Amino acid sequence: MLDFALQNRSLSLDLVLGALAKIDQGVLILGDDRRIVFANPQFSRMFSLPEDLVRPGCQTLHFHQYLAYRGEYGPGDPEEMIFLRERAIRQRERYRIDRRRPNGMYISVSGNPVGEGGYVFTFTDVSEQKRLLLEMESRVEERTQELRAANEELMRLASLDPLLGIVNRRTFLQVAEEARRQMVALNTSLHVLMIDLDHFKAINDRYGHSQGDIVLSAASAAMQSVLRPGELLSRYGGEEFVALLPRTSAADAMARAEAMRCAVAHHSVALAGAAVPVTISVGLAQVRESDPVIGLAIARADQAVYAAKANGRNQVISIDAECPQDAPKDTPHATP
């Protein structure tokens, strides 16, 4: 009966070892003295280990040294790499690591204590899974970049006037409010221009809204042509525009407003076969340190626009100046 049990046990062990020799994973089994009990062929082939390092009875220290000094465990001190692995076996720590080998293969290493003092390692080639994962991550990153770019484009488009391609009122107010805060913090100057196209309703009524859009586009392009970097033009609504002039003195702001007025006045627009003169009235206001919001300066600039229109149009008036400044006599004026 005992012989049968021993024979049966031996047969079972042979079956287990035979099965371990056939599986795709590398398998290494250690005894309680940290010596090799069994290493299947896949383990030896995976690491190109000499046969004399993986025979039953060999110490793990020897193949750890062999692998560490070949760079198998990655950059760093080989002796430290050896120490950490020997300690894990000695202390019967359970662990799992995934790493990239020097030849580019990705492996998953699992170590588990077994029995009274044994230890078993499995080494699985996960290169294909890693390749698929990296490919998926690359696709996700690519898609994320596309979505980010699409969102940025949507945000950009949401900030622009769809007809003129310049910033819309909402965006302008956000930028201008931030500029006001910076002006106060840095003790610099800031000016606002309110701009109104003269007789625009009459142009729309006579030539139609599509032709009115052409006039708006031409005037917008002319005004933008004289702006400097850091200055901003916005469509405020209808035929109204607003411009922001940071770090500009009162004299420079007046000069910029005049340059914008002249740029528009010197370029007539062809409508229905006729050259139609286009002019603007401009109100200038300096943002005051006492202004709690940018809207107060815009309101003052708007008052100056009304004064410019009442004074004959096609001119710049500063609400802060003691006397209104009319347009130079050598530039064309529209009829009131």
Q: List the strand order in the largest sheet.
A: 2-1-5-4-3
CATH H-level homologous superfamily name of the largest domain: Reverse transcriptase/Diguanylate cyclase domain
The CA-CA distance between the termini, in Å, is: 124 Å
* Rg over alpha carbons: 41 Å
Shape category: rod-shaped
Reported by name, the CATH topology of the largest domain is Alpha-Beta Plaits
Report strand %.
15-25%
Q: How are the SSEs placed, and which strands pair?
A:
Blueprint: H1 2-22, E1 26-30, E2 36-39, H2 41-47, H3 60-68, H4 78-90, E3 95-100, E4 106-114, E5 118-125, H5 127-158, H6 169-186, E6 190-197, H7 200-207, H8 209-224, E7 232-237, E8 240-246, H9 250-265, E9 269-271, E10 274-276, E11 280-286, H10 294-310, E12 316-318
